[in-house]
Amino acid sequence: MLIFVIQTHYIYIMKRIMRSRPLLVILFMLAVVASAAAGPLRFKHIEAGDGLSNNKVNCILKDKEGFMWFGTSSGLNRYDGYNIKVYRGDPADSTALSDSYVDKLLQGDDGRMWVHMGDSYSVYDPVHDRFDNNVLPEFRKMGVNAIPVNMNILPTGIWMSVRNDGLYRYKNGRTDKLTPLTSDGREITGVTVVDDSVTAVIDNRGRISLIDDDLAVLASAETFGVDNPHQEDMWLFAARRTGLCRHNQGFLPELRQLDTGIFSKSFLFFR
Fold first, then answer.
1. Is the pTM above the cut of 0.85?
2. DSSP classification of residue 181
3. Crossing angle of helices 9-18/22-38, nearest 10°?
């Protein structure tokens, strides 16, 4: 995967303005044009030749300090806009990553970054620039007694899915287990935020549920099942006005709209 780095504040502002009136969009575009005339947007192509540990990038995170982090198949990369620092797994070093295959990055409110590698996590301490691989005590503090297979840090809380156990939410020092979502043997494979008080959850059989801040199920829809063990990965996109869309990865990708009655602006992945 090739990476292109762009000044992202334009994109963020644009998303906010699109929710308002078209006139504001026009004014914003004029401001962008004026800014571009003074100094055009600059793109930079980053690859292994520039110091990236691997061109296969699995995940990207911009942290609270403004650093860009890239999780690759052979290391974690921190980019400050000029230089790249690479972190790799080292079994002989207890303060290094536990593995070099990084597939997910999360940052908590305390500034620490959770690095997911297969079935394990390392927690990055930005103050001392090192990693803690003894993460089970951290999860026990949040009321979970096993390493989650899926973890999401969202405005609605910290969501943790534990294999053969269920889905947990940790928020404001309290841990709750959402038993109904997994009572029939389902596994939670994706969690995303719809807004500050609603969370969307998807399981391995394609059921999407909307959960409010009190953990009540607002809506639930069975989209489609995945009973074939050879089924390719899929993603779902729910747009506010167009409904729920399904995408099959294959030689010719397919995009199909599903009438579920659930509307949001989120991506959900499941296998």
1. no
2. G
3. 160
